[in-house]
Amino acid sequence: MSSYPGYDPKSGFEKWLDARLPIIRLGYDTFIFPTPRNLNYWWTFGAILAVILMSQIITGIILAMHYVPHVDLAFDSIQHIKRDVNFGWMLQPMHAVGASMMFLAVYIHMFRGIYYGSHKSPREVLWIVGVVIYLLMMATGFMGYVLPWGQMSFWGATVITNLFGAFPLVGESLTNWLWGGFAVDDPTLNRFFSLHFVLPFAILGLVMLHVWALHVPGNNNPTGVSVKNVDKDTLPFHPYYTIKDAFAIVVFLMVFVAFVFFIPDALNHPDNYIRANPLVTPPHIVPEWYYLPFYAMLRAVPNKLGGVITMFGAIAVLFVLPWLDTSKVRSMRYRPLAKLFFIIFVLACIGLGWAGAKSPTDLVFATGTDAATGAPVGFSFLWFARILTLYYYAFFVVILPVLGLVEKPKDRPESIQKSVLKSAPEEA
Amino acid sequence: MAETVSTPVENPSRRDFIYIATGAAGAVGVGLYAWPLIDQMNPAADTKALSTIEVDMSGVEVGQQIVVKWQGKPIFVRHRTQKEINEARAVDVSTLRDPQTDEQRLVVNAEGKYEPQFLIMIGICTHLGCVPIGNNSGDYDGWFCPCHGSHYDTAGRIRKGPAPKNLYLPPYQYLTDTLIKIG
């Protein structure tokens, strides 16, 4: 343990404080934490997410100083922020683009977790806390999108709150309770603002639990092989990973600010620049891009309750993933079949996103034209989404459980150190 | 020996009762505290008070639809053509997803007669709450919901697509032949 001597208070004040509130020790133990020496750049998205969360909270508190949560004033107050408030032109897109960036980073973070088996024993609780954070992010992002009170805000809120109306018996009372009325209206906007403000702090609290749950077993790593010798297999988090994370954060922020400054509305929808009108539905309602795969699943099922269950189930299945993935080998680097199915899974998620952005009757490709009407016929996005939804579920409930039993994994390195030292004979 | 062991515990069943009673009183207290916090989100008194409107339909031409707002929701008032009424009545009701005859979609006027030309419905798709497009759209010449592709016929009955129910009817009554009170 020579690399990690632990906190040693030097000055009299530090000793005095350490005996009363060991907060410096907490920071020391958090940052001088033994971290596998072979973490690649896929591991930097945790730190990236922490930075975006803080950015979202800060810009959000600022926007709340200027925003007015009222159906007659909300739409104008956003324009007031963007046009009149000092630096509002920058702060509002930072917050709106920040939401997209946070989802982009969290999806990479989650795919990384699945690929390298970071959800497996002994990190199940770490993974589950992460899924709860993701759920809260979805709720927060959805309510935030309602606040500008444009057409997409209003109709997105209407469609999503109506999902709860699908539940038998309690559906109608539940939606009226959510709305505080008989349709999405002023009470709905006010409560969404209140919850949108407070949920990020709940997320922050859960992030602390997430880091705590990480620091009990320690980081997973690309080989999935556990740390055997702390001195040989690990490096202190600071300075090695603070620097690596900082570099990744800078690269990620370059993408972030490119959106903020040059294409702030690229991820928005033009209809959200039309004031909400409860009497006219836009011809083509789509959610924000980060919900599109789930939206495609909702529409893939021709039954209201069935669609809602399919959509929520797609997230619920993540909670039990640690027990569905039966393979003893953590990293898919050594699981050739699992790697193949994982790549298809990622493509399926992207495909579902594509299907979610299209109308179900649009064609992926045409095979000919209808003899009577002359309209093109072929493979519709509805069926495309159905097949991909089936694969999404099959990946979790069939492929991963079965692969763990039948797949023959490749040889894994003896240790993390052996995997990174090129001189080691078995790596030559 | 048995007596000496039980003496320090002193009547355990009485101690259990106190635990359970305290816990029960606490649970009731939490419930009483939580209910106002939950119920405040239900529709407020002033929201509920805006519950009736009167609509004069005399200005709605044949083949025209007007949309009025009731409780924050769009209400379709359509003056149907004879062709639309005939289409709605020609359907075999048993084949419908939510079986209703055309007359079950209407209410009687003050004299106890139907006014089949006026169809009054809540203009909200029963799938996920979008406002369907009217003017004989969709495959059944009634309404078509652009969000997820539900088709309604000329009586507002679901015929195709994901919606489970016919367009809902608001509670309303005829004050005269062309004046109705909704709510």
Report on this model:
The complex is a heterodimer of chains A (428) and B (183). Chain A is mainly alpha-helical and 428 residues long. Chain A has helices at residues 12-20, 23-31, 45-64, 74-83, 88-115, 124-146, 151-163, 171-179, 186-215, 230-233, 237-262, 292-300, 304-319, 321-324, 336-357, 381-406, 416-420; strands at residues 34-36, 234-236, 363-369, 376-380. In chain A, strands 1-2 form a two-stranded antiparallel ribbon. In chain A, helix 3 (45-64) runs antiparallel to helix 5, helix 6 (124-146) packs antiparallel against helix 9 and helix 15 (336-357) packs antiparallel against helix 16 (381-406). The model of chain A has no long low-confidence stretch (mean pLDDT 93). In chain B, 27% of the residues lie in helices and 25% in strands. Chain B has four helices and ten strands, in the order αααβββαβββββββ. The longest helix of chain B is centred in the first third of the chain and has 28 residues, at 12-39.
Summarize the structure.
The complex is a heterodimer of chains A (428) and B (183). Chain A is mainly alpha-helical and 428 residues long. Chain A has helices at residues 12-20, 23-31, 45-64, 74-83, 88-115, 124-146, 151-163, 171-179, 186-215, 230-233, 237-262, 292-300, 304-319, 321-324, 336-357, 381-406, 416-420, and strands spanning 34-36, 234-236, 363-369, 376-380.
| Largest interface: pair, residues per side | A-B, 37 and 31 residues
What is the CATH third-level topology name of the largest domain in chain B?
Answer: Rieske Iron-sulfur Protein
Tell me how many strands of chain A there are.
Answer: 4
CATH class of the largest domain in chain A: Mainly Alpha
Number of DSSP strand runs of chain B: 10
Can you tell me the overall shape of chain A? Answer: globular
Task: Decide which structural class fits the backbone of chain A.
Answer: mainly alpha
CATH level-3 fold name of the largest domain in chain A = Cytochrome Bc1 Complex, Chain C
Run of helices and strands of chain B: HHHEEEHEEEEEEE
| Largest β-sheet summary of chain B | 4 strands, antiparallel
The CATH H-level homologous superfamily of the largest domain in chain B: Rieske [2Fe-2S] iron-sulphur domain
- How large, in whole angstroms, is the Cα Rg of chain B? 28 Å
User: Which strand order does the major sheet of chain A show?
Assistant: 1-2
